[in-house]
Batch of 3 targets.
Target 1
Amino acid sequence: MNSLLQQLQPYPFARLREAMQGLEAPAGMTPVPLHIGEPKHATPKVVTDALAASLSELAAYPLTAGLPELRRACADWLRRRYDGLSLDADTEILPVLGSREALFAFIQTVLDPVAGEEKPVVISPNPFYQIYEGATLLGGGEIYFADCPAPKFNPDWRSIGEDVWRRTKAVVVCSPNNPSGSVLQLEDWREIFELQDRYGFVIASDECYSEIYFDGNKPIGCLQAAAELGRSNKGLVMFTSLSKRSNVPGLRSGFVAGDAALLKDFLLYRTYHGSAMSLPVQRASIAAWNDEQHVIENRRLYQEKFAKVIPILQQKFQVKTPDASFYVWLKIPDGDDLAFARMLWQQAAIQVLPGRFLARDGRHGNPGQGYVRIALVADVETCVKAAKTIVALYQGGEA
């Protein structure tokens, strides 16, 4: 077996299961799973109708580059969403099987370790989505973390030394951020672009939560930021997905967009990798990207949940609505996120994810410790009831 597999750490949910072994929820209580970011809103009819209407196309092999109609639908969506952003649908857009597999594959295509030389570096925010780390390690690289401290929870790029930047081949950006929901502003992007100009790394921008935002404050995307700052998309690739936007995590559909030269090589890799999207899924994806009404309703439901849940939690905790995403990044005043998660499970069958499982130890300890991630993916009533229970059970007093 590939010895690099031994470097991989257990996934956060596996660590949670292990931490909960032997602990039972109260008898008769139905588990309330708020620990995993799996959308629970109804799948849009426009998507299921398109999928059902094209099932006969399962008899055909799809092309890895996808249907021209799908790439055009993605380009049209980018133009509508990002203030006229214009990309070439033939060379700057590539359909993928969700952002997760694309991020995993792309990072490995960027790395080029050479025997006897220092390992190439991928810089990741911390806390982080564990795919970034796994892809780096299996690609023969070294992962380096930029802690995301309160109150903004944006990566502290300036804490990274010259010796690390010199070896850096890729920087992963996650905005809106998982788990904090923070969003990079134009000046934050300017800072990253200046570092890119100095050190020549590729930017991989994970933007899968971009359509869940509040008060009309649309998160700016990396390609939009580059355009507004008068830059090309050289060395820049964004990753997005229908999973959160359209409530279809099982469809496994998204796309990447950006630097045509990088995507040309990425397409070659994917052709060998067997990553072509089935034609019915492509047809359903076209319908999803072309329809915005279901996204507006989806966003309204999340807005309603946050509007009701946050005031309840504020009775005992210092917490605010995130810039975007469907996560509450809740600070536990006594700092013991794992004990808090265990207490909620044992007393109320509520499942939340300890923040320590989403991060690695950095210069100042584990930046996820002392927080829990709560995914408001259940219906409004369930989320509100869970928030009231959390407040009633917490005995630590107001933060």
Target 2
Amino acid sequence: MKLAIISSYKRDCGIAQYVEHLEGPLRELLGGNLSIAPLPVDLLRASGPMAHGMAKKALAESLAIIADAEVVVVEFEPGLFGRSQRQIWATLRSILDAGKRVVLTYHTAPTLPPPTPTSIRSLISLARHSYAQTVFRRLLRMVRRNQNKFAHIVQTRREKTRLTLLGVDPERIFDMPLSYFTRAEKAEFGHERYRRKLDDVYGTGGRKVLGVFGFLGGIKGTKVALRALDHLPSDHHILIVGGLHPETVVQASSEQPPIKDLTKLLEPTFDASERDGADDQRAALLQRVHFAGAVDNRTFAELMAGCDAILLPYEEVGQTSSGPASQALDLQRPIYCTRTGAFRELGKYAGDALSFFEIGNYLELAQKISREDAMLPARAQARARYSDTVTVEARALMYVNAAKSTQKS
């Protein structure tokens, strides 16, 4: 069976990182009958006739790869396919038309509308939600007209239920959390080895290192982690791994909003109107924060393996999964995460492996870190069970089974 994947690839993107980890095990299962059709994300999201022409040419090359395959896998995150709903659908429609059979992996899934509007603000929110669901409505209409052509991969049972209620054949929906590492790789990432390496680079020997992984920005809740650190003993340090998301970078400016938000918490202001000692407190806090910046896939995993615990203080944005959470579970690291929909759903697979706190409640986070809630024996046992069953090999096999299901009439 010749299979092609169209996705962001070899770029600074969580989905690209996931596909790069999936590629090896999938090639082994398919005997080399796997092609990657890179999605020209930067060109699709650019504006102007020159960018449009370049995007059209680059996409045509990927469509040729898709047309040659028996099954195409679409790693679907709408924002990667264009800027507007119209453009996203046009790109996606060209891919679906070119593919003989299609497996859709939903990194974002259809979401429920907000409550019935009772104000102008809530009415605007409802209108925005309706617009944002345009592509999903069109996609699902296409799927319902020709169920045999499609199979669907989701990361949670909730998404499987919702797709079923929206008219998708449940026999063609496959659910499993994301995974990044093979069993052999998991065995190789020992905590002690990589902790020594981390300490050598960042000078954190004898400290408790809490890792914050992913793009810098509001939805990742990095500020919440820093506020929690301010309420923890001085031997607790935070390692921030990740850079700016390419789509958030302000052009021709060194004033980047996510960076500015962090420096406000860490950099002394010498503002006379502030309470006494505030600048000294910021300076002391900065000594306990270490920026690793954007790193490659291997270094990302090594740093995560070396941390004592992983902090995921995300906001609720309707995402169905988290790459850093999945990697942390793969590596059996203790995890503190917000009680968002995605993490609650992940907990249905991971049992007691996750330690939850409320969105934005840095005091609760600090208290749970202080009492080492994520290190409880029951959580360690749950992480071991999860890591043994959810692997990238299992994900690769699920892709193959999903592709085979499209052969059934």
Target 3
Amino acid sequence: MSDIREICLKAFEDKFGTKPTMQEYAPGRVNIIGEHTDYNGGFVLPCAIKYGTCMVAKPNGTNTMRILAVDMNNDYDEFELASKIEKHPTKLWVNYLRGVSYQICEKFGDKVKGLDIAIKGDVPPGAGLSSSASLEVCFGHLVSNAFDLNIALMDIALMGQAAEAYIGMKCGIMDQAISANGTKNHAVRIDCKSYGLTQVAVPSNLEILIINSNIKHQLVGSEYNDRRESCEKAAKIIGVPLLRDATMEMLDACKDKMDDETYRRARHVITEDERVLEASKAFEAGDLKTLAKLMYASHISEKNDFEITVKETDAIVDIVKEALGEEYAAVRQTGGGFGGCVVAVVEPKNVEVVKNAINAKYQKISGIGATIFETQACDGATFTRL
């Protein structure tokens, strides 16, 4: 984080002609297992990663947020604080912040004042590692601390989720929840119905690798929302509020009342919830063989039932399986899908084996290179006065 902090500090001083008085940081995330279960009230097992969003800020004595986005070629925007804030017609990045701002203003009114802010992140955009959630949580936590609003971390996460809906993306709570509530050296199993958090220690005999296919996804669109609608349709046919409340027996009893696509979407979610609960135990126990079986089953379900993988992420999974052998290849596509990253949980001795295999084979298949990085499980949102 030190590099992006230094860049942020310099950009702030260059733009605003003064030094910031506060700093905020919120991480991105990688999801070990539990895909598209969050908006169905189910279980997920993400961890916060060592890549995230840094903001430095200073109150400006006005009713206006003035924001510099270093990563967007120093693009700049400002907007007045109010309980109704219009979306910017062309700048997607600031709409995440506008979407959080109007909610805070709705709740806290004139307690919220203007800030000068510079933003710099190092989560690869479009990689499925939650750069937008990191941005939303970073901003929400910054504003809460800047004005002593004491907004609970999960409430900040919910504001981030609502900001996505404001933009047009009906996502679940996982990404914002882990960015806010991450814990060093732990994954966090999130019950997305009760918002319960269970710490799951990362065992010392396992490493987390993220392999970016460099196929960028764009989830603000029909594919993601279509799948959510299919899940809601299935839940309605089964007669439950959320697919979290359904079993495979209940789904199969209603199979003749739904089309094949709706059935397969629901089957993915119901079986994925079961896999998350089993995988949490295997992960904490360092049981790589069981974890490998569950993560690969998750990937196949993503591919065949939910249809969110692409040939490039499928290829990475196959390369890792071939390099490590099926028993030890705990690997799957992670994130919302349609590109992005693959996550692999491996023994330390096999980190280089995986890297070498990907570097030797992926470009020949895809025509582009993959980016591979190791991560630790990190803490969530952190505020500091400078």
